[in-house]
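Supplementary Methods S3. Input chains for the assembly prediction are listed below.
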Amino acid sequence: MEKEEEIEECSTACFHLVSAFLACEPPDFVISFARDFGGGFITERVQSFLWNECINKSDVKCNLPYLKRFLKKLIVEIESNGDVVLDELYEKYIFCLASVKDDDLAKGNTRMLRRFSFLFPKDCSQASSCQIFRKLEVALQCSLNMLEGDTGCSIWPSSLFLSEFVLSFPEVFSSKSCLEVGSGVGLVGVCLAQANCSKVTLTDGNLSTLANMKLNLELNQQATDVLGHTRQPNTVQCLHLPWASATENELRELMPDIILGADVIYDPLCLPHLVRVLKILLKREHLNLHLNNGSKDCPPDRRCFKSKETSSAGDLDVYVRKEKIYGNPHADHLSPGLGQRPVAYIASVIRSIDTFNCFLSLAERENLIVSDITETMKPLDLLPYVKSYQRSSVRMFKISYL
Ligand SMILES: C[S@@+](CC[C@H](N)C(=O)[O-])C[C@H]1O[C@@H](n2cnc3c(N)ncnc32)[C@H](O)[C@@H]1O
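Predicted structure tokens for the full assembly:
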């Protein structure tokens, strides 16, 4: 169940340890949090804490393979320091050994339940130093096999980043109709449901991914959003939307204000279809546009130019439109408003520069403007304990129709 809790006093180390364990982070990372919590050692007090707050709270059958790996590493770590291991930990490990068959794991369709806690700092302007005062927990059934469901049954780094983005700037999405392409496990949709959107539609082209996504949405039904508004049940819808076969009429009927996507730019064969879908969703010809009088030039309040972009993902030979933002940088992104064109926010890890450049040239051909807003709209670090996720590898692009 999705939970939102007011948090009073708890050390950051304790939060990080529990959150990392419940999110099924790699055992080595969790063990290093346990060591931090114990001042360098996994003392008996730390072991009791692990037993009560972590192991007992994630006692679901599908997580036994993870628990088995975790306990094995933990016991080796404690024994190698010459410390005493609690009996409960040995007994649980023996139980896991008897219950988990390695054959099951080899079949490749093993699922586990990961609980991601978004930890909100007290004062958002000082995310790094501030005390945590609220958390939003999202439970997600994921596959251990990254390729299951056409890669959609596991969580990719860009969806963690895009979720932090949605929760950091809920005003961008509030009262907007939002549609995500290639939604995978549905994490972004659960976060959008927290942002008081008028409508949230999650889509994917793979049917087993879609079934898993629906299950995750049911797991995370919650009555109120992050702003305290009462939510209608089932505000999030799931839709089968394969990019290659989605018709223009079908796409036009969806009419989202904001389109989102995470880690969807990776397969060169799919890119023409993805760009076509984005173009149809972003181009609303029938709207009486206030923007720019339909001119192809930049709006007068912005200067834009093509420039060679160098990003933290490496030296990228990509050409993107740079935005100069005046006034309140966020106001510029409170889009779209009445009569404005839709925009897309696409988070992406650029694994192949050729594939990404291919996306950019297809987008340019379709009159789509791609702006890198990674530096101008930085989300809060709400998942500081997820060490398996490299935030700096994710870029955020805002796309609109010229
Ligand atoms: C790498 S996964 C990313 C999933 C999720 N957005 C995330 O970041 O965790 C790519 C997603 O795009 C979907 N996808 C890939 N090709 C597609 C296509 N041609 N039509 C629709 N969805 C597609 C996959 O099913 C998968 O869910």
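The chain is about 35% helix and 20% strand. Residues 64-80 form the longest helix (17 residues).
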